[in-house]
Design brief:
Distance between the termini: 66 Å
Largest sheet: none
Order of helices and strands: HHHHHHHH
Number of helices: 8
Radius of gyration: 19 Å
Length: 173
């Protein structure tokens, strides 16, 4: 397993309640000359649901479990059927329940992001300066990138516009 002493020590800290200190593209630029071509390809192709790479397969199980539980609980709230996840974990169920009970979608996302960061920290464990740390960092960046797509004011504006369109359609009936 390769050691990335300089690369990892030069990366800014990532926090679930913080901003993205660098873009994923900037992260890739830093990695390109430091990692093998095969590892770089994996980093370049990385998504939140990837299954290939150090730590990534373990992360996929955590993320998949979280996604299944979220889909299950949302479906139950809507009165729809959805297969009950076989690999339920108490903490995952609690986190999803808390997120679904949140006062707004942004707060729910923050609850989920905190949990995802915590899970990644547990997966990285005591690894230092190796592929596990590098790929854990990459997944956290992807999570922050995803969260960056949520804009409270823009979402509120979009909701009002959609509501207005629905009201107009109702009135024309």
């Amino acid at each position: 397993m390769a050691a990335y002493y300089y690369l990892i020590s030069s990366l800014p800290d990532l926090k679930s309640d913080g901003e993205m200190p660098l873009s994923y593209k900037e992260f890739l630029d830093l990695c390109e000359s430091q990692v093998s071509p095969d590892k770089f390809r994996l980093l370049k192709e990385l998504t939140l649901s990837s299954t290939e790479g150090p730590l990534v397969n373990e992360w996929n199980r955590v993320y998949g479990s979280l996604t299944k539980e979220l889909n299950y609980q949302r479906s139950m709230k809507l009165g729809k059927t959805y297969p009950n996840p076989a690999d339920k974990e108490f903490t995952t169920v609690q986190v999803v329940s808390s997120a679904l009970a949140a006062k707004d979608p942004l707060e729910a996302e923050k609850i989920m992001l905190d949990y995802e960061f915590q899970q990644l920290d547990e997966l990285v464990g005591l690894h230092m300066f190796d592929d596990y740390v590098l790929f854990g960092y990459a997944v956290k960046l992807k999570l922050l990138e995803r969260q960056g797509c949520f804009d409270h004011d823009k979402g509120k504006s979009e909701f009002r516009q959609l509501l207005g369109e629905v009201q107009q359609r109702v009135y024309t009936l």
